[in-house]
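Appendix B.2, paired examples.
Example (i):
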Amino acid sequence: MSLAKTVQHVGAGILATTAVCAQAAPPGAAELVDALSGVFGKHVGARASHAKGACVQGHFLPDAQALQVTHGPLWSQKMVPLQGRFSVGGGNPRASDKGKTVRGLALHIGTNWDLVLLSAPVFMVATPEEFVEFMAARKPDPATGKPDVAKVKAFNEKTPSTKAQIDYLTQAQVPASYAHAPYWGVNAFKFTNAQGKQSYGRWRLEPRAGLVGLTDEQLATFSDDFLLPELKQRLSKDAVVFNVWLQLAGPQDDVKNPSIAWSSANQEVRMGQIVINGLNDTCEPTMFNPAVLPQGQALSEDPTLLVRAGSYGISLSRRLNP
């Protein structure tokens, strides 16, 4: 199937089922969207999270090694068209590209697989309830327009699950490009191969261009909107490529808690390559939903994953019907 037909198919399906997704969302999904709007405000037509971004197109090259852990027709194809979106964390469509926040990469691969990734190996909290509290603590004071530092500190101290992502982003440099950032699927998924063997895994994307960050001195010379121009220039010369790995859970790993990183010593399976070869502005009226999965993959029991999946339908419904 061509990219154009893939985009048309995915977009039509999403728009047709938006109302159903919103109605069928699990308890807590609407609260997640409301919590984001409470911090970043409501911006007509913008996503509640990762509001600032750039749509792209390309293809996925499946690797035969994937059949160790999964199965299905996707993995017999030589090339699968994709539509994607790079983004800056947060719900402000005018956010600075220089902020020490996560970057995002979301993908429609073929017609039945959405991959949603962050440039941090862990999520900000362990549960949906903690997410709502996390945002409530950071809601700006109407008088100052800024969060109450004491409330943020108090929440962080009583909620140890927030520490891992905060520590990672504090220590990591701001990526010099969307193409120079690593990306992870912070939630676990369940995989079944053709022999019926089941395993849990998390996605990891490794940039072929390498990891390149910016120092504070370099950042001072950059525009607040440098990522899109840099991406345009890069794609005019060559494709942006990511090697796709699946990190398998060990017996000691908690597959229900996205705030805990798994050991780098865990076995990884090479699943293929993501190749981004151009910009494509057709992704904005769509959503990328981690519950859209191909044969051989299923949602794990992670409650944050289940609620996140439901919140995307609610967010899209509100974007299309402000």
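Example (ii):
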Amino acid sequence: MKTEKQCTKCGEVKSLKEFYFQKQDNCYRGECKECRRSYLHLWGQIHKLEIRERKRNYNQIHRLEIQERHSQYYQTHKNKWKLYYRFNKDKHHKSTRLYYQTHKLEAQKYQRQYRQTPAGKLIRRNAAHRRRALKKDGNITLAQWNAIKLQQKYKCYWCKRRFKDSELTIDHVIPLSKGGVHDISNTVAACKPCNLSKQDKIWSLM
């Protein structure tokens, strides 16, 4: 029995272990694994947009089926995923941030579309309820808010750029979700980009 075979692509004689075995034909492929991988990678690069469009169409058609399959898999392996996330939290956050930076426009478009769905509206409504409940423990008057903007000379507290009065927003130095209070001691004026970027993180005071 042969233990070696010549690759039809690169012409090198290699061990049979370096070739893929085709069960349906009961024989080894003509090209070696390395040549096959190079060909598939090149084919994927050439037909990248076509493959992406095909995947998008498939996901749209089988959306409910895919969601159900993912849900069942997660329920079956819930403890495994929780354990993995606990030990790889920083890695997960880093990859998420990297993906968002490289696909920012796509992510923003998806988020806008998702907010218009029943599930997205429900999430926003529940978040608004929680935020209103947290604000009950404090109060900021209009005069105090105007005084804050005047004290900062209508500059964003974080990026130090000057903005119009209507472009500044209330930002809590310690987020309400992290135990911060809704009063003047925990409030600064921030531009919308900085406020959205900060989200529920705690940035150091400047």
